[in-house]
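Entry 14. Structure prediction run on the chain below.
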Amino acid sequence: MPHIPQGGTGCLTILPFPQALAQALAPGQDYDESRWLYVPNVYGEYRYILGTRGSRPLICMGINPSTAAPGALDNTLKSVERIALGNGFDSFLMFNVYAQRATDPNAMENTCNLALHRENLAAFRYLLSLSPQPAVWAAWGTVIEKRDYLARCLADEIALSREFSARWYTAGAISRRGHPHHPLYLRKDAPLDPFDPEAYCRQVLGL
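Output returned:
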C-alpha cells in the first residue's frame, strides 16, 4: 500500500535522532538488528535511515522515504542494494534529503519542518561518521524540484559532508535538467561515477 501522509509533520512530536538511534540499536527488535539499521525502529510518518550493516557502506541519498522497512524493501531499495554490492560495497544506507514519508512526492508537506530537518541532519552526520572516507551516492532524480525547500535542505547536507571529506557519486545518465539519476530504472551492474555536489548546487539549483 502507498503511504499517504496523515497531515503535516508539524503536528507530530519529532523523536530526536540520538534517542531514535538508541532505540534502534537496542536488542529485541522485530527484525535482525545485527543486519539492519532502521531509525526510527517503527513504521511512522518519517524515517531517518534504513539500511544494512557493514564495514564499507554506500550512503544513498534520495528525496524522501516511502514504505520500505527491514526485510520488506521496495523496488527502489532493492536496486540500491544491488548497485551498492555490485560496486564493491558490503552494505547500503538509505538516507533522504527530507525525512517525511510519502509514496507520492507530490504529497510532501509544502513547508519545511525545521525540527525534522535538524534531526535528519543529525542522522546524516552519524552515517558520515561510520567510514573514514564516506561514499555518498546522489540519487534523488528530478524529484528535488517538487518543493523549494528540498534544495536548501540538500545544500545543508552537502556542507556537512565536506566536514567528513565525503566522496560523491552518481549512477546512470544525468537528466536534461542536470539532476542525478534515480535508482529505480538503473541496470543492476550500473557503475558509480564521480559527482561534484557543489557544482551541482551552483549550476543546477542556483544556490
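The two ends are 36 Å apart (CA to CA).
Filed with the rest of this week's runs.
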